[in-house]
Design goal:
Elements: E1 6-10, E2 16-20, H1 24-41, E3 49-54, E4 66-77, E5 80-87, E6 95-98, H2 106-112, E7 120-125, E8 146-156, E9 160-162, E10 168-170
Antiparallel strand pairs: 1-2, 3-7, 4-5, 4-6, 4-8, 7-8, 9-10
Length: 189
């Protein structure tokens, strides 16, 4: 996924291709289908499969960071999306979580790494990384593969302090642990 509704990929001859879509929605829908195709073409899904839909901006999420997330979860059925089993989209409350705290399924912990504020990602999570053989009574059958679309709305970095201009600055932004931001206000990455 690239800015301005572009996607790039390599074919099996290692040739690089770019596609420009007419809208962000068309680009996201295509990316979702690519992720589902990857899942359906793998003999056994043993780890989290993810596809960025929107890249977002700023620092990538690391363990210990606190996030506020909007999400929708579907059951993966008949090689595609089944019914929605959970969502907080169109609700007042975002899900708050601290990455690495173990409060959400293992597949989320893995699939959220590297995401950025404003980023959206599609996750396909095998049963072993989700609710396993027990499932969730009345919502997720045992041994279910799950699909989530997640959007990071807010990020609070582990080591955050306030700069002289009142903006939050992470100690990961620069090699020096100074609380004062770079003069241009942007991090090196």
């Amino acid at each position: 996924v690239q800015p301005n509704n572009y996607s790039t990929f390599y074919d099996d001859q290692r040739q690089n291709w770019s596609i420009m879509f007419e809208s962000e929605k068309a680009a996201m829908d295509f990316s979702k289908q690519v992720c589902i195709a990857k899942c359906n073409s793998s003999p056994v899904l043993e780890s989290v499969l993810y596809q960025d839909l929107v890249l977002g901006e700023g620092q990538g999420v690391e363990g210990g960071d606190s996030l506020e997330i909007a999400y929708t979860g579907w059951l993966f059925q008949n090689n595609g999306l089944g019914q929605v089993f959970d969502s907080n989209v169109n609700k007042d409350k975002l899900l708050r979580l601290k990455v690495g705290s173990g409060k959400v399924i293992k597949g989320w912990e893995e699939g959220m790494m590297g995401m950025k504020k404003g980023g959206r990602r599609y996750l396909i999570i095998p049963p072993a990384w989700a609710y396993g053989a027990q499932g969730v009574a009345g919502r997720v059958p045992p041994d279910s593969t799950l699909v989530f679309e997640v959007e990071v709305r807010r990020v609070k970095l582990v080591k955050e302090c306030s700069g002289s201009d009142g903006q939050s600055v992470s100690s990961r932004d620069s090699p020096a642990p100074s609380p004062v931001p770079n003069s241009d206000g942007f991090s090196a990455d």
